[in-house]
Amino acid sequence: MIAKRLLDLSFSLLVIILLAPLMVGTMLLVWAADGHTPLFRGLRVGRNGRDFRMVKLRSMEPDTEYAGAASASGTDSRITMIGAAMRRYKLDELPQFWNVVRGEMSIVGPRPNTRRRGVDCYTAREMDLLTVRPGVTDIASIVFSDEADILAGSRDPDQLYDDVIRPWKSRLGLLYIEHRSLSVDLAIIALTGIALVSKQSALRGVEAILARWDADEELRRISRRSVPLPTGLPPGLAA
């Protein structure tokens, strides 16, 4: 989609230019805290299963991504004090707009996953998530913006993620792929911004989108986040 790529490029360049002072200032704080590089280039799986390096502001202790669970909880000891603040306001995600400019990611799309405890565990149906560029944000990013809090205190955050987040996150990603359009992307970008101020308002916007897509009631109920998250099975895995 040419229009989607133009949106990706124009919006990403605008964000990079406008927020450059904030990114540089945050990078200096991360570097000053421990003297290590403020950037993290994590290996992720992109469109058609190609690996790429996703750039983030480093929120963990140096060289600790593979020292623990693949899913980081809010109580993960690897997360630094500055990193926790960055994660709270999604500042660590800002360098990913450079990945968008490079064509490795899109602004809106299913979030990129690792191979370990990620794509390697996908069902055949979930592999369809790799038919589009991964995104900086998507509907699941809004619904599960408190993912770290959900996993906090768990002895096995990876298993808890697979049980109560992955099934619904993958379904939302697949639903987006079926209904994606430029207008949908613009709506999700707007809702992502709204979520930083009022998550409940953003969730009402998500509900409206899912209603237009005629999503099943179970997924809509879970996306409202008004009830505890139930366990489920990933798309394509029979009970």
Taking the sheet with the most strands, its summary is:
2 strands, antiparallel
What oligomeric arrangement do these chains adopt?
A: single chain
Order of helices and strands: HHEEHHEEHHHHHHH
Instruction: Flag low-confidence runs.
Output: none
Radius of gyration: 17 Å
- How many domain regions? 1
Give, in spatial order, the strands making up the sheet with the most strands. Answer: 1-2
The residue fraction in helices comes out at 40-55%
Whole-number average pLDDT? Answer: 92
Could you characterize what this model shows?
By secondary structure, the chain is mainly alpha-helical. The chain has eleven helices and four strands; from the N terminus they run ααββααββααααααα. The chain has one domain (2-224). Helix content is 48%, strand content 8%. A hairpin with a 5-residue loop joins strand 1 (39-45) and strand 2. It starts with a helix and ends in a 15-residue tail after the last helix. 36% of the residues are buried. The mean pLDDT is 92.
Structure summary:
This protein has 239 residues and is mostly helical. It has one domain.
Q: What is the element layout, followed by pairings?
A:
Blueprint: H1 2-18, H2 20-34, E1 39-45, E2 51-57, H3 81-88, H4 96-101, E3 106-108, E4 135-137, H5 139-143, H6 147-151, H7 157-164, H8 166-179, H9 182-195, H10 199-212, H11 217-224
Parallel strand pairs: 3-4
Antiparallel strand pairs: 1-2
Helix pairs in contact: 9-10
Task: List key phrases describing it.
single chain, two-stranded antiparallel sheet, 8% strand, 11 helices
